[in-house]
Design a protein that fits this description.
Layout: E1 2-8, H1 22-28, H2 31-35, E2 40-46, H3 65-84, E3 88-93, H4 99-110, E4 114-118, H5 139-143, E5 164-167, H6 172-177, E6 188-190, H7 192-195, H8 199-213, E7 217-222, H9 244-255, E8 260-266, H10 277-290
Parallel strand pairs: 1-2, 1-3, 3-8, 4-5, 4-7, 5-6, 7-8
Helix pairs in contact: 3-4, 8-9, 9-10
Length: 307
C-alpha cells in the first residue's frame, strides 16, 4: 500500500502549541518507522501556513481566520497531489479544522466526496455561536453548508447529508444547553452508546449509506471519540467514549472498504503527555488498524483507495 503522510499542525485556538505539535510528536513516537512499516511510505512533511493570531476574524468569526484559510489551501493542494498519484493520504493534525481541505481535495479529484466522521463531538456549531471561536467546533457544519453566513472558498460546502455518517458523538446535552441543534435525524448517526456491541454492523451500514451517494469518501478520526481513561491527552474530555479496541476495529473495517480515499487523525495534544506514552499508544493504534490481520481481516479484502 502506498501511503503519503502529511502533517497539518494547526491549532484552532490560534496558538502554536498543544495540538499544533502533534505531527512532530507522533513522528518521534514511531509513526513512520513503526506504524507504517510494511507499506510504501513517503513523509511529505508539514503544510505551511500563516502565523496564527488568536483573535476572531471579520469574515468567519473564527479564531486565527487568516491562518485557517491558508492552512486549508495547503492541505487541499497537497492532498489533491497525493490522490492524483493514486496514493493513500494519511493526514495528521492538529485539530479537526484540517478536514475541509481534505474533503475539497477529494471532491476535486473524484468528482464527489462522502465522509465517515468519527468524533466525540458533532462539530456543527454556527461560528457565531461557538463558545470557543475555534474552527474545530464548526468544520462539519460548514462542510455541510449549515452555516448561512458568507464564508471563504476554503470553507465552502462540499458535503451532502446523505453522503455523511457520524459515529461516536456524545455532546448532545451540551448542544441542547446552548440551543444548538443536533445533526441526529438529518444524516446517518450513532452515538458512542449506539455503537456498543455493534461496531462492525454499524460501520458496514454507515459506509453502505455513504456509498449510495458518493463513490469515494474520507475517514476522519478525532481521538476524543475515545474515553478519557483510554486517551487523556485531549483538550475537551467528556464522559463516555469508545475503547481503543472499539476504535481500532471501526478503523480497520473502514480502511478496507474500497471507497475509502484517505484518512485524517486529529486532536492528540502532546503538551498533556509528558512522557510520550499516549503518543506511542496512538502510533500502535495506526499500526494495528493497518495490519492485514486486524480483527480477523486479511489481505483478501480490498485495500483503501483501490476502488
Amino acid at each position: 500500500m502506498r501511503i503519503d503522510v502529511l502533517g497539518a499542525g494547526f491549532n484552532s485556538a490560534g496558538l502554536d502549541d498543544g495540538v499544533a505539535r502533534a505531527p512532530g510528536a507522533l513522528r518521534r513516537a514511531g509513526l513512520i518507522t513503526r506504524a507504517l512499516t510494511g507499506h510504501e511510505v513517503r513523509d511529505l512533511g508539514d503544510v505551511e501556513f500563516r502565523e496564527p493570531i488568536p483573535r476572531r476574524g471579520e469574515v468567519t468569526g473564527l479564531l486565527a481566520e487568516e491562518a485557517l484559510i491558508s492552512m486549508l489551501a495547503g492541505v487541499r493542494r497537497n492532498v489533491e497531489a497525493i490522490l492524483a498519484r493514486e496514493h493513500f493520504p494519511l493526514l495528521i493534525g492538529g485539530d479537526c479544522a484540517v478536514l475541509p481541505g481534505a474533503l475539497a481535495a477529494c471532491r476535486a479529484v473524484h468528482g464527489s466526496v462522502g465522509l465517515l466522521f468519527v468524533d466525540g463531538h458533532e462539530d456543527a456549531w454556527p461560528p457565531a455561536d461557538s463558545t470557543t471561536g475555534e474552527a474545530a467546533d464548526c468544520e462539519l457544519g460548514l462542510a455541510l453548508g449549515l452555516t448561512a453566513a458568507d464564508v471563504p472558498a476554503e470553507l465552502a460546502p462540499v458535503l451532502r447529508p446523505e453522503a455523511t455518517a457520524l459515529l461516536g458523538p456524545r455532546d448532545g446535552a451540551e448542544l441542547h444547553d446552548h440551543g444548538v441543534g443536533s445533526l441526529r435525524g438529518s444524516l446517518w448517526f450513532a452515538t458512542d452508546r449506539d455503537l456498543t456491541g455493534r461496531i462492525a454492523a454499524s460501520v458496514a451500514d454507515a459506509v453502505a449509506t455513504i456509498e449510495m451517494a458518493a463513490g469515494h469518501w474520507w475517514l476522519h478520526v478525532d481521538l476524543d471519540v475515545l474515553a478519557t481513561d483510554q486517551l487523556a491527552a485531549v483538550d475537551y474530555p467528556q464522559a463516555g467514549g469508545l475503547s481503543w479496541a472499539e476504535l481500532t476495529e471501526l478503523t480497520a473495517i473502514a480502511l478496507r472498504r474500497p471507497g475509502c480515499a484517505g484518512w485524517s487523525i486529529t486532536i492528540y495534544n502532546p503538551d498533556l503527555d509528558a512522557d510520550g506514552h499516549e503518543a506511542r499508544r496512538v502510533v500502535r493504534y495506526v499500526e494495528e488498524a493497518l495490519s492485514p490481520t486486524a480483527h480477523g481481516l486479511d489481505r483478501d479484502h480490498a485495500e483503501p483507495g483501490s476502488g
